[in-house]
# Entry
Amino acid sequence: MSKTTAAAAAPIKVLVIDDEAAHADAVADSLARVGYECTVATSAHDGIAMLSRDAFEVVVTDLRMKDATGLDVLAKAKELLPDAEVIVVTGHGTVQSAVEAMQQGAFNYLLKPLDLKQLRAVVDNASRNQHLRRANAELSRRLDEKFGFEGVIGNSPQMHEVVDRLRRIAPTDATVLIQGETGTGKELVAQAIHQNSPRKARPFVALNCAALSEHILESELFGHIRGAFTDASADRIGKFEYANGGTMFLDEVGDMPLPTQIKLLRVLENHEITRVGSNDPVKVNVRILSATNRDLEEAIRNGTFREDLYHRLKVVTIRLPRLAERAPDIPLLIEHFIQLHSARHHKKIRTITVAARRRLMSYSWPGNVRELKNVIESMVVVDYDEVLDVDDLPPELAGGDGQAPLPTAVDGLASLVGRPLSELEGLLIGETLKATGGNREEAAAMLGIGERTLYRKIKEYGLH
# Structure
């Protein structure tokens, strides 16, 4: 690999670990000359500490060191950075140690004295794997920009803002408080954060704090030891221990009892839990995401939620808009849920009629995305002719006069009073085009005008 090739885009970050400082420096210097960004650690302990602080893509480690072995480094690297390639180097090579290193996930195994040309070739091969991962990640990023952030679907300005915020916070370890009405997709956003974080290979564990009593909730979160309470017939690990290295999502955290809030605060401060009935703390490394549809500041004033916990949970906040606030996303969601539920129920759905789509677009969706998802599933289940139509709608949306029901969301209507009709017509046509994703045939049908008339209006009002 030439220096130009290695340094294309961001350079590959290499960590060199060897308690012989001169040898470590020689290896790092050799790799740096061909474009790698190298960091040196002169003990296994320091190397492991660096692995926990920074995202290295290739690790070159000596096998025998005074404070630990290269296999210890390999195991920790695979735990902290699962995608990193680890190359083990030793001056005391045996078939057994080589086999053991490869079985534990080492990329390659080299003998001292190192042939620097061979070392570069091996690192180049490891680097190619990393460039491929980067290319796949970039492809995923581009697909996300077009179709959503790992399942978070939307093309409205409100959702663009949410997705942009998710992109910035997902790679960090910051606690995140997700706020929004019931049905806005808070758990989906939590999953998106986890799946786009360095913890994605570790567990994602969700728990609804409102669904359990205080006693059961603490046992679920922290586990218990045998005899801690009636029916505790054996030791049991809790969600925090199970999620170690991963992400914990606490839904409806505003309903958590005050005694449990105190214990959660200790987890956030000390990164350790204590099982119910035990005095022995257990260290855990878990990122906490939480969600609520309650006003936690009001709960603090009412004495039902701790202010110190609130500030620890809301290092970053995300507010999810109501579906009525992001109407341009409804067509995308309709298509997504049709595909999802037709596959799930093994039914072929060829299309949805303009009349049915118009009904869906004009409804206020008090239950938000969850309600829309359930409505589409109902339509798919009852359909018999492969075309979703008004007769497949549930009663609350079906109406009885063949016309779409009047919208029940009237926010901002007063601001339209007194404005010229021509201006309102242009505004209505523009919003309808957004709602149909620019489909002029569908927009004309929804507006009740001909396509030629719509084309003329688009030109007249300078719409695109």
In short: The first helix runs from residue 3 to 6. The domain at 324-411 is CATH 1.10.8.60 (Helicase, Ruva Protein; domain 3). The first strand starts at residue 13 and ends at 17.
